TrEMBL record:
Its main location: membrane. Keywords: ATP-binding, Cell membrane, Membrane, Nucleotide-binding, Transport. It comes from the Bacteria. It is found in: Cell membrane. The lineage of its organism: Bacteria, Thermotogati, Deinococcota, Deinococci, Deinococcales. GO terms for biological process: peptide transport. This is ABC transporter ATP-binding protein. It comes from Deinococcus terrestris.
Length: 348
């Protein structure tokens, strides 16, 4: 993976809140991260941690009301080379950015594909809108894109409707549609979760291959750390609407400094875990006990404290800041140095 080191997207202190009858839900509460050109950044966390609200904020697709971006900036440099703050761009300009500079693929392609239009019409529409091509040229681009994402007989498939395709093929169509205008940033929100494991692996392979060809950056949203290991350069771990850890993927897997990340890592199956002796109980993966906190009733201190086996009294007093643990790795845990120490002792 090649990085030019140039920042494509910088999210600074983003706060996206929802006004509900029960109070204000602080879904994203002061989130900061960046993505460099050509890089894949994974955002991980359990359901409800604020991953999707973060990506929808970047696309400016938060339903307003009840949602609102109340603070922060989202700086993005599009194909025109000009840096813009997405938070306050006029809607007309956002429409030029969506699908052209930033594309998004979702977990369930059927919710994004229109059942009454052919695949070719749907891919072609974005190409006509953003690239000023006529219908015939747009159809040719659509056919080429289907070929690129490995759909057999694309000249025929381009005239078919979404229901004529399998789930894996539809996800390929979504990718073709998302990439048809050569976006600088692809946001992939759990793009393979609904697919079976073999197809999942094929789609991830395809995304990696296309990224190398096109050179785009990917913001990969997932709760699956196995997928992170395969896809990402860097990882942002979210919990309760905040970033709790961030770092290089190898470093995070080798030396997590936040107990929530440690918990996530302990709950993924690894090679070897599969060895199951018939008649013996299966080796159980350690799930993190408890649930993500109710966003309307967050504890006063560290939001992970009620579930944390390392919690001490100070943890419930104030939300910890992000500590710089070195080498671009940050963690929001007051005990991170003790984990580092313990690891050194184990390795010594
Ligand atoms: N339209 C809305 N109105 C009120 N609350 C919302 C709305 N959309 C999201 N939220 C809340 O924001 C919080 C974060 O949700 P978000 O969908 O970003 O989580 P997530 O980490 O992406 O989870 P998942 O993996 O399930 O998509 C949740 O508590 C959710 O209930």
């Amino acid at each position: 993976m090649t990085h030019q080191g140039e920042v494509l997207l910088a999210v600074n202190g983003l706060k996206t809140y929802f006004n509900t009858d029960d109070g204000v839900v602080k879904s994203v509460d002061g989130v900061t991260f960046h993505i460099k050109k050509g890089e894949t950044l994974a955002v991980v966390g359990e359901s409800g941690s604020g991953k999707s609200v973060t990506s929808l904020s970047i696309m400016r697709l938060i339903p307003m009301p009840p949602g609102q971006i109340v603070d922060g900036e989202i700086l993005f440099t599009g194909k025109d080379g000009v840096q813009k703050n997405i938070v306050n761009l006029p809607e007309a300009e956002m429409r030029r950015i969506r699908g052209n500079d930033i594309s998004m693929i979702f977990q369930e392609p059927m919710t994004s594909l229109n059942p009454v239009y052919t695949i070719g019409d749907q891919i072609g529409e974005a190409v006509m809108l953003h690239q000023g091509k006529n219908k015939r040229e747009a159809l040719a681009v659509a056919t080429e894109m289907l070929r690129l994402v490995g759909i057999p007989a694309p000249e025929k498939r381009v005239n078919e409707y979404p229901h004529q395709m399998s789930g894996g093929m539809r996800q390929r169509v979504m990718i073709a549609m998302a990439l048809s205008c050569n976006p600088a940033l692809l946001i992939a929100d759990e793009p393979t979760t609904a697919l079976d494991v073999t197809i999942q692996a094929q789609i991830l392979d395809l995304m990696r291959k296309l990224q190398q060809e096109i050179g785009m950056s990917i913001l990969f949203i997932t709760h699956n750390l196995g997928v992170v290991a395969e896809m990402a350069d860097r990882v942002v771990v979210m919990y309760g609407g905040r970033v709790v850890e961030e770092g290089d993927v190898v470093e995070i897997f080798k030396a997590p400094r936040h107990p929530y990340t440690m918990g996530l890592l302990n709950s993924i199956p690894r090679a070897g875990d599969a060895a199951h002796v018939p008649g013996q109980p299966k080796q159980r993966l350690e799930a993190i006990p408890g649930n993500v906190p109710n966003p309307l009733n967050l504890p006063p201190g560290c939001p992970f404290e009620p579930r944390c086996k390392f919690a001490v009294e100070a943890c419930s007093e104030a939300v910890p800041p992000l500590f710089d643990t070195g080498g671009g790795h940050v963690a929001r845990c007051i005990r991170w140095q003790e984990f580092e120490q313990a690891q050194h002792e184990v390795n010594a």
